[in-house]
Amino acid sequence: MRRTRIAGAVLLAGAVTGLAAGPAQAQEYRYWSFWDGKGGSWAYATEGPATQRPADGAVEGFRFTVGADSAGAGKPRPAADFDMICRDTPAKDGRKRIGIVLDFGTAADAPGGERPPTARTECAQVAEDASAGEALAAVARPLRYDANALLCAIAGYPKAGCAEAVNGSKDGAKGSASSAAPSAGAAEDRADGNDGGGGSGDGGPSAGLLGGAAVVVALGAAAVWQARRRRG
Fold it and tell me: What is the pTM of this model?
């Protein structure tokens, strides 16, 4: 009987784990995603803007999107075309040019009461050792950050909120997150401060996953306690 009850508690904890894991994996967030322009196409960045130091001629993209990870994030819609973006910015000694693409997303992805600005491109001419975040700051102020240095707004958009959970997320897990995705470190979309485009310090999906894990542990412990009480 004792073994049966313990086994039942373990099965209950396992069932709770399965139930809690589903919503955590499917939870979507509204955030600024960070992209590298390579060969005219976009690839989700593998590190955050604060640490990535692109070479002269690189193109970096920022897209306001809703997604659970890199597989669900919307790519910047303007082309990653350095020659077009920086054609009117002559090269200078001791400086580098970085093409910046700003895609403010769609009306469907916008926070309530806000309307996304039109997408635009900028050519940032910055110091040779400048990061992607510094290039962004040179052409897209005002930027807004939260207390953990997570990038919340570019060019003042959105006016409020930061990597907020979106209600009504679709069921089912999505592809694994890259180190720049919200569940790995928002995205990590920190244009200044600690790298956030890898890591779990983004305050978005990571926090949600940790919260779900805490619930699983608590309910599992309760199931074991109940089994022991019945034995007594």
Answer: 0.66
